[in-house]
Each structure stands twice: as C-alpha cells, then as structure tokens.
Amino acid sequence: MIASLTGEVLTARLDSVVVEVGGVGLLVHTTPATAAAARPGESTRLATSLVVREDSLTLFGFADDDERALFEQVQTVSGVGPRLALAMLAVHPPQQLATAIAGGDVKALTKVPGIGKKGAERIVLELRDKVVSVSGGGGEAAPQAVVPATAGDDQVAEALIGLGWSAKQAEDAVAKVAARPEAEGANTPTLLRLALRELGR
C-alpha cells in the first residue's frame, strides 16, 4: 500500500498530477482542488490510496490523511467505487461531505453525479454514526496561474464529464458560467468550481 508520496510536480491537470519520485513519474488522480494546489516544478506531498484491479493499478492523491480516510470510508458502502468516491470529494470539500453524511443531508449527496436518492440514503444509513471527523482544511485550494476562460472551457467540460456528468450537462454548465461577470479572466480551476456549483443547484 502506498500511503503517501513526496516529490516534484512534473505536470498538473484539472483532475490529476504527475509527481516524480525517485526518478519515476507517478500519475495520481485527484480532486480539482488538490490538482489546483500543485505547481509544476515545486515539491508536493500527497496522502495516497492505491486501488488494485486485475488489469490496473490506480493511484489517488489527497491534500491530507483525513481526506484520504473519507475517500476510503465511503467506498465501504455497496455501489460506491473509487471514481464515485473521488467525484463526491470534487463536488463537496471533505468537511462538507462529512457533515452531509453525519447530518443525513440526502439532497446534498444527490448533487454528485451517479448518486440517486436511494444511494444517498444508503450512504447515510451505513456511515452516519461512523463517518471520519475532518478538520477544517482541504476545501478551496489556491488557484494556479490565470488562464483565460475561453482557453479553459474545454478542459472544464472534460473534467466534468470525467466526474460523471453527460457531455450536454457539462457544456451547458460551462456556457452558463462563461456568461457570468466573475468568469472573465478567471483561471481554469476557478471555472471548474463555478461549474460544479452550477450543476449542484
């Protein structure tokens, strides 16, 4: 089990980073907030969870151990795999997700693509009394260098589709966000957060 890694960030996309550790570049899947905090050329430390399948080894990275613990805990619920668990943390920062589960907020959980009312109720039923306590950190991350909104639209739509929304939903959300005054000159991670909020309404 690879519990954490520390190394130089080689590349950072909206939902993944490549970190060089001992001369090897490791692809790590992350939430948009964690990826946005990674700066190419700088050192980073990520708490990690390695998911082993017959045909793949997939590494997921998190800002801290609490976020990783929550990622692993929600997967103990039937029907929740690593991709859905990561989508939950992309839509809701760790503290909000833990609060939603502990408080039985089914509506908040169904904002995640792939989670319906029954699935949300099952997550609450199984985890309500044992969800991990999450510290106040790990929410909004510092953005990367500013990228013009038009240059980031395709990346944002691609990330939303990767999180489980349909292409039409992703394109509609990006179009609505792009029309807002606050989107002018915004960087790509900020556009993605705005789009996630739009889809969560």
UniProtKB/TrEMBL annotation:
Q: Where is this region: Domain III?
A: 151-201
Question: What segment(s) does the record annotate as region Domain II?
Answer: 64-141
Instruction: Name a biological process GO annotation.
Output: DNA repair
List the transmembrane segments.
none
Q: Which GO terms describe its molecular function?
A: ATP binding; four-way junction DNA binding; four-way junction helicase activity
Which residues belong to any copy of the Helix-hairpin-helix DNA-binding motif class domain?
72-91, 107-126
Name its cellular compartments: Cytoplasm
Q: Name one GO cellular component term.
A: Holliday junction helicase complex
Instruction: Name a Pfam family for this protein.
Output: HHH_5
What does the sequence similarity comment in the record state about its family?
Belongs to the RuvA family.
Q: What this chain does, per the record?
A: The RuvA-RuvB-RuvC complex processes Holliday junction (HJ) DNA during genetic recombination and DNA repair, while the RuvA-RuvB complex plays an important role in the rescue of blocked DNA replication forks via replication fork reversal (RFR). RuvA specifically binds to HJ cruciform DNA, conferring on it an open structure. The RuvB hexamer acts as an ATP-dependent pump, pulling dsDNA into and through the RuvAB complex. HJ branch migration allows RuvC to scan DNA until it finds its consensus sequence, where it cleaves and resolves the cruciform DNA.
**Oligomeric and partner information:** Homotetramer. Forms an RuvA(8)-RuvB(12)-Holliday junction (HJ) complex. HJ DNA is sandwiched between 2 RuvA tetramers; dsDNA enters through RuvA and exits via RuvB. An RuvB hexamer assembles on each DNA strand where it exits the tetramer. Each RuvB hexamer is contacted by two RuvA subunits (via domain III) on 2 adjacent RuvB subunits; this complex drives branch migration. In the full resolvosome a probable DNA-RuvA(4)-RuvB(12)-RuvC(2) complex forms which resolves the HJ.
User: Domain note for this entry?
Assistant: Has three domains with a flexible linker between the domains II and III and assumes an 'L' shape. Domain III is highly mobile and contacts RuvB.
UniProt-recorded name of the protein: Holliday junction branch migration complex subunit RuvA
Gene coding for it = ruvA
